[in-house]
Amino acid sequence: MMMSLFEPTPTPHQRATELREEIRRHDRLYYVDATQEISDREYDALFAELQKIEHDHPELITQDSPTQRIGVAPIGEFQTVTHAVPMLSLANTYSAEEVQDFDRRVREGLGINDPVYVCELKYDGVAMSLTYTNGVLSLAATRGDGQTGDDVTANVKTIRSVPLRLLGDRITNATVRGEVYMLTDTFLEINRRAEQAGDKTYANPRNLTAGTLKQKDSRAVAKRQLEFTAYWLDTPDKPLTSHSANIELLRELGFVTGKAVKTCSSIDEVMRFVEEWDERRFELPFQIDGIVIKVDLLRHQDELGAVARSPRWAIAYKYEAKKAQTVLNDITLQVGRTGVVTPVAELQPTLLAGSTISRATLHNEDFVHELDLRIGDTVVIEKGGDVIPKVSAVVIEKRTLDAQPWQMPHTCPCPRQSQLHRPDGEVNWYCDDVVCPWQIRRRLQHFASRDAMDIEGLGEKAIDQFVDAGLIESIADIYELPNRRDEILQLDRWAPKSYDKLVAGIARSTEQPFPRVLFALGIRFVGEGVAKILARAFPSIDELSMATHEQLMSVHEIGDSIATSVREFFEDADNVALVESLKNAGLQFTSTYAGPSSQEFAGKTFVLTGELTSMTRKEAEEYIEARGGKASGSVSKKTSYVVAGENAGSKLTKAQELGVPVLTEEEFRSLLSTS
What we know:
The protein is α+β, with helices and mostly antiparallel strands. The mean pLDDT is 87.
């Protein structure tokens, strides 16, 4: 009997299964093995085919499908989950002597002379625990307080290097722990966009990673391109004997593991590894802040146990910040969206921590004078946990006679050369020219940014194109773009699909609530928090525009600077015309604020200080306000609580001096969970 020359057409179920397996295989090649067999375009075609099948047959969508990485709709609150095995914190050291002492304690605790250690790079990120049930990722939780953490599964599913299904069938139930982090280039690009929009930049990749994981909308998380590396495994499906063997097993299961993992037979070998990576760490495309040293055999780990919240079988050697000296060639100025003019150090290019540094912010005029910076000085620049370099000192003994003191110019560096002014009691100088070309683009970028009007399709590059083409000269012109289809489609990289996306984004922006519109207008000193306060006190733009300086000052937390700035904004004819144009475009200029959802914190004022690890500062303030409380930026005798995160500074000191109750981040979270 003759065999058919043609294979039968696979059913949608069969094809979807084939595509998922093929995409998982290519993901492993790319993320684990650092290679690839097909081009990005071919990979995208496979992914698009799977998406179409699942769109046409939604009953075929599985929890572990690669398409589920795109993100889901925003959630309400993160659920708290309990870790089956506590997530311990490592003891830190900065000295070789303390590492030697750690080795002595290990040898004495085990009663042996030759323990085996495993050294790993200490990724500067956020610890994460992943639970797999029947081979599928079922839970992702933050460290939290070590005993409990937040369920961030939807957000972690967007991380391409996290397997949604374990490879093979030897292990189906497991807990995997590792670090979520961000590549340095990704961080710098996000900061570059924020700076050009006139927004506050992030201090370092770790803080940005932590804040990203706490986003309520996992679609926004997917855009941040987070990474994951695994370093710990627990499973009932197979006897485990050593940490080094577990690292290999994690790779077999489909995980990315540490870039450099070394098994060492002596503490001298450990220290050589530590010293090697102190020199090489800035070659890496991500940040590390030290080396983790672990006893290899799991039975030895069990025998050594833990003390308080730290294991006796592991320690973290932390690296010091890198510094370099270079020459300050000049001090130039840059202008932000609100007209703030900032001095910038133009440096003799020098290599620091793996990158060539030629510029660094100098914050403000007072900072320059406090350091006594002079043109021609030799200065110290450094990078620590912060990726962004900073000038930290002057090398006085290298100062030459021709070093020139610097004075703040009083004209804007833009072609219009407008006069600058420094308000009484402020550290910043301002350019008030509303048509200053440096400010216009940044105001537009701020208005369209995610935290303001969130206009999808109107990013930095699009704004540059539209300004260059004369399509936009002010914020109001954004709402005329839907009428300029033919002109937009003539621009480079614009097609009907991208144009439709822009028009849809502009239409959605008209639904943004009044506080966000008020924030988007870019009134000096009116950030997100102040915009909310003003929108509650003056529920419409008309009421706010007519409010006197005294009426504004009578609102709690609105001081003289804010009141003056608001009055100046509405006394400017161009700004009044802008508001009228935006009204005609349909933007929301009336508040629909319904008050807090509860009153547990009614009458209480909280001040946040330091770095929060389990939530962003913005989220903490929202939690407080939702319970009827107020978040303030300064400590006084009337402050109810100060919440102190990591590296808390002068606000914590002042709270202690005034006797204001201080809460740790864990205590604050506990207070939230009981309210």
